[in-house]
């Protein structure tokens, strides 16, 4: 497929796969079908995109050489970043136990579903029991969701896991919870009506590992597993983990690892550190997208012969924030659309339904970060749930009229936003490690606001930059 063909497919896909609510009628996106990820097609068909891919590989190799040579010259040993990875995934056994707990909860849900189907059969014979059975089903789903969340949340709140392990545990917790909701919505009504059979346990387990959050009785499947593709994508995942560890070790820790050891810090030092984090922040942002939504999901799709691999669309070309949020992560967006937006929009209206989608998504992201870092610091909540929501209507029409200008504005926002994230979260993280422990310390109050004290440079005065023209 040529590069123009890929672009045409993306454009046609956007026209044919639109979800909206008009006069109470729900128009859903097309069902699953066999298709590749956009970057897979672009890398295969365009030498330009392949060159950009190679540039990122070269940057990784340069960072690798920088780490090896620097540590060899400075310390007389070779460091390939394994120390940062080992520290980031510390106490992995405890993390595996928490993941296994959620997996067992998900597996235990199937026999509960079978039991509810039996209760539904009884309610068809005795209609007076139907409201009670329906209420029991709703309460049961809520109880299972609470059970899936309560242990990881309490355990991570009681004793903090290292960043990599805690992010994995919390993301898996949300993944299982969202899948259980999807199964409940799809299978709950059929348990009461008896019109359709329940999925087999084999298909249920397949859904739990499939790279989608929407339950269907059937998914398009490919004919064979290309193990070379699986190995290649997992190698990409491993390389990106190294990539982010190099960025953390070479660009973040030199600026923020000592934050809080001194009682005061100059404002200029903070500003310089924040701007220094802009470029590594964006690179990490792009690498994280590619790692999770492309390499990881494509590897599992290949192993499971899952045919539909449109996990994202060409969000990097958009000039409207609403389109960016739809295209960035189609896996989560589809779940939010089907289980929050579509049920609410006819009753609450599209604006309120849209805002609630943003609110739920922003809170979920913030919970993941709070449990992962070990403190509540709602920087992402403000960027995503406040500024992002405001930008949706502001770019709705203007983005169509001036696409090039607003695409540039969006990328400027990505650069600045990621620079702020990669500055404020490390500042708070190291402030809690380096600053003295006080009785007033709180999980919810940022410590970096009070320790250390931010001061201006001694004898600092404002000088008019236009004075040179008045002399």
UniProtKB/TrEMBL annotation:
One of the GO BP terms on file: cholesterol metabolic process
Gene: LOC111352082
Spans through the membrane: 51-70, 99-119, 131-154, 227-253, 273-297, 375-396, 408-425
Entry GO terms, CC: endoplasmic reticulum membrane
Family according to the record: Belongs to the membrane-bound acyltransferase family. Sterol o-acyltransferase subfamily.
Keyword Glycoprotein applies: no
Chief place where the protein resides: endoplasmic reticulum
Protein name: O-acyltransferase
Pfam family of the protein (one): MBOAT
Taxonomic classification: Eukaryota, Metazoa, Ecdysozoa, Arthropoda, Hexapoda
Active site: 365
Cell compartment(s), UniProt: Endoplasmic reticulum membrane
Lipid bilayer topology: Multi-pass membrane protein
Record keywords: Acyltransferase, Endoplasmic reticulum, Membrane, Transferase, Transmembrane, Transmembrane helix
Keyword presence, Membrane: yes
GO MF annotation: an example: O-acyltransferase activity
């Amino acid at each position: 497929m040529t590069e123009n063909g890929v672009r045409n497919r993306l454009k046609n896909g956007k026209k044919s796969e639109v979800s909206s609510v008009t006069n109470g009628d729900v128009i859903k996106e097309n069902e699953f079908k066999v298709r590749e990820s956009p970057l897979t097609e672009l890398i295969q068909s365009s030498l330009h995109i392949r060159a950009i891919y190679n540039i990122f590989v070269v940057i990784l190799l340069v960072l690798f050489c920088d780490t090896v040579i620097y540590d060899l010259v400075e310390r007389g040993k070779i460091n390939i970043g394994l120390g940062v990875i080992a520290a980031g995934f510390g106490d992995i056994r405890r993390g595996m136990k928490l993941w296994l707990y959620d997996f067992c909860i998900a597996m235990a849900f199937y026999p509960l579903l079978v039991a509810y189907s039996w209760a539904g059969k009884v309610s068809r014979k005795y209609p007076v029991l139907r409201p009670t059975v329906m209420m029991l089903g709703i309460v049961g789903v809520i109880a299972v969701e609470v059970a899936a969340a309560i242990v990881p949340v309490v355990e991570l709140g009681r004793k903090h896991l290292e960043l990599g392990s805690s992010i994995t545990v919390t993301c898996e917790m949300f993944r299982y919870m969202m899948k259980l909701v999807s199964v409940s919505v799809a299978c709950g009504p059929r348990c009461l009506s008896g019109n359709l059979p329940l999925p087999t346990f084999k298909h249920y387990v397949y859904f739990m590992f499939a790279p989608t959050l929407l339950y269907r009785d059937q998914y398009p499947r490919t004919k064979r597993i290309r193990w070379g593709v699986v190995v290649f994508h997992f190698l990409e995942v491993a390389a990106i983990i190294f990539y982010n560890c190099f960025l953390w070790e070479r660009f973040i820790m030199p600026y923020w690892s000592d934050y809080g050891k001194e009682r005061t810090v100059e404002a200029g030092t903070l500003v310089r550190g924040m701007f220094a984090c802009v470029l590594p922040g964006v690179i990490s942002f792009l690498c994280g997208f590619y790692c999770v939504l492309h390499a990881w999901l494509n590897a599992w799709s290949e192993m499971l012969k899952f045919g539909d691999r449109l996990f994202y669309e060409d969000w990097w070309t958009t000039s409207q924030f609403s389109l960016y949020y739809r295209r960035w992560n189609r896996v989560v967006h589809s779940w939010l659309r089907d289980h929050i937006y579509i049920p609410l929009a006819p009753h609450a209206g599209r604006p309120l339904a849209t805002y609630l989608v943003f609110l739920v998504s922003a809170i979920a992201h913030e919970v993941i970060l709070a449990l992962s870092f070990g403190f509540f610091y709602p920087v992402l909540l403000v960027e995503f749930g406040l500024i992002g929501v405001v930008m949706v209507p502001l770019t709705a029409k203007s983005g169509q009229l001036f696409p090039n200008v607003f695409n540039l504005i969006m990328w400027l926002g990505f650069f600045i936003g990621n620079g702020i994230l990669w500055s404020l979260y490390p500042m708070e993280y190291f402030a809690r490690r380096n600053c003295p422990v006080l009785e007033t310390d709180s999980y919810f109050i940022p410590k970096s606001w009070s320790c250390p004290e931010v001061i201006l440079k001694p004898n600092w005065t404002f000088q008019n930059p236009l004075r040179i023209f008045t002399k």
